[in-house]
Design goal:
The protein is mainly α and 112 residues long. The chain has a domain at 6-83. It has helices at residues 6-35, 51-109; strands spanning 38-42, 45-49. It has a two-stranded antiparallel ribbon. A hairpin with a 2-residue loop joins strand 1 (38-42) and strand 2. It is rod-shaped.
């Protein structure tokens, strides 16, 4: 790909990096949330409730959706850049083939 689409390459790398950071950091935060006890204060007494596990599970699902979405968008940018490069190469190859066919037709149509 060389120097084509340098800004898009940087943006793609940024999205993939941020996706990794979100996945790793968010998963760590979700695990900490799941493992920490959640306290409920009711009528002056504190008691442990089971809401921290479900909060952590919801955080993890959100982190997975967001992180994988960021990674997928970065990969999509790479895919689109690759498609454009290969389409350009294919078009150039077809133009070369057309030139060759025209040359062959001209040579064949010339009287000998």
């Amino acid at each position: 790909m060389g120097r084509n689409y340098r800004a898009l390459q940087i943006i793609s790398i940024f999205y993939k990096f941020m996706g990794g950071v979100v996945l790793i950091g968010g998963t760590a935060f979700a695990i900490i949330t799941m493992l920490s006890p959640a306290y409920m204060i009711s009528a002056g007494s504190m008691r442990v409730s089971g809401t921290s596990f479900w909060s952590g599970a919801i955080i993890e699902i959100s982190v997975l959706i967001t992180g994988i979405g960021l990674l997928a968008f970065g990969q999509l940018l790479d895919l689109m850049m690759d498609l454009e490069v290969h389409a350009r190469e294919s078009r150039e190859m077809q133009e070369d083939q057309v030139k060759l066919l025209r040359m062959l037709v001209r040579q064949a149509s010339q009287p000998k």
